[in-house]
Design goal:
globular, seven-stranded mixed sheet
Amino acid sequence: MAQDFDVCVIGSGAGGGPVAWALSQAGYSVLVLEKGPWFREADFAKDELACCRRSHYTPNLRDEQHVLEDADGQGGWDAVPTGESGRDFWNGSLVGGSSNLMSGFFHRMKPKDFRLLSEYGPIAGANLADWPIDYADLEPYFTRVESLVGVSGQARPHSQLEPRSTPDFPLPPTAEHPVASWIDQTCERLGLTPVRVARAILPQPYQGRDVCSYSGYCGSYGCNTAAKGSARVAFIEPALASGRCQLRPNSPVRRLISDAKGRVREAEYLDAQGQPQRVRAQVFVVACQAIESVRLLLASPGPAHDQGLGNNKGQLGRNLVFSAGGAGGGYFTYAKLDPVRQAQLRLLGPFVNRALQHWYEIDDPAFAPGPAKGGTIEFLMAHPNAIPLARSAASADGKPLWGLPLKRKLERWFSEDRKLSFEVFNDWLPNDDCFVRLDPALKDRWGMPVARVRLGAHPHDLRVGRYLAEQGERVLREMGADWVSSSVSAAPPPNLVAGGCRFGTDPAHSVLDPDCRVWGAENLFVSDASFMPTGGSVPYTWTIYANALRVAERIADQLVVPNFRT
């Protein structure tokens, strides 16, 4: 059968972009099918309404939604469509995916993250599994991402610093907020070593991309200088420049068509005009985001996979994971500071770039009799987006507030102090109550069943998150912050989701082999975060980029096998 392309990649985000780039650079013809639109730098205004009050970068819930199942407190589950609840579980549907909207905190996973079960032992109710590869296997790709994306930072020694094959990052740190020095001084008094956080953000022009403008509007916003290392600017656009890659935005894939041997022959999709099309390729790569990749595979049964591609053992969609943790912060009142610190605190734009990984492994007898997996505490200035703050100010004692009282309250909130926040990242333990399946009734605008997602969390996640949040509060109080508080929740963040297509060495307990090839489908790979058995205690993007480059090499190895073309 004649092929239209060597490789068809479905999804253009952190999992799809590196594959498209690497294989087009290697000389293969690549087609990228992307459901969302193609926005460029000029389309990314610092618009609070577009970001946070409109579905500008995500699908409209009237057209595309999820059904989310939450525990009802009585041993059952409440299933509510997001089109009814208004609970938006999307996080970017556009060329480059949600990497366009990330904050760009770049942390490598640690060697122990790959061996969670072996290092710390089983936990009742958790489906822990070691990865089938280790840190040394992924380290060269972590390093390669640094240069391709333009990662800035400084690899200062600390107790949890992972092994590196290069002494430092290719670019120096971004401009840093003066509060970073306040954190450094406080941590020194407490006997802690802060991490100088690497960022996928350019402090200087690099490979034709411009420098960061330090507007303060980074997380949840697209970058209009191309300084942020999204999959779009770092991989998709260079792939297109090779002349061997085509991109078709506004092209949702409805199903993959496979033969009696399990090999995928065609992808069926809708073009930008809504007309059904099919494309043939030697190799297909699914990289739609964890939930949507599972959804597509479940919607693609075939002669050798009658329950969905990769689901012959009932593993597809199981062991979905998110990032557990929480958030906290404290306020610094201008009137309590000397003039120098007042001026420092008022500065907008530069990044704090500080984190603590002192408790990435918790060695505290009060917490556990032996070492336990902990996580990361990331410090950042409260986002300058005024809408959330104004909305929270618009009530008092449970009643609406308006007119002059509201104006005076807003004046105080915006002018008297400033908040230093922290975020906690720790493992969301995979368990039997966190999974994806197809909803039996609800369909999207194209007539496809929507994803139904059960969001059960393990109680251990909350315990670790609370321990870390308490450490973050301690640092802020030592800094002199007022009104210090934090919260830890079992509600999952939709921007940090992985699993559902776990990779492993045993097809009875995994969907993918160690090369991220679907068991029983020799020319089908999955390269987004859904491959991850566990998520580590850091944001996922760097790991997804690195593994996608690794998967691209495995695909290239397969493409040159004699007689593979059929």
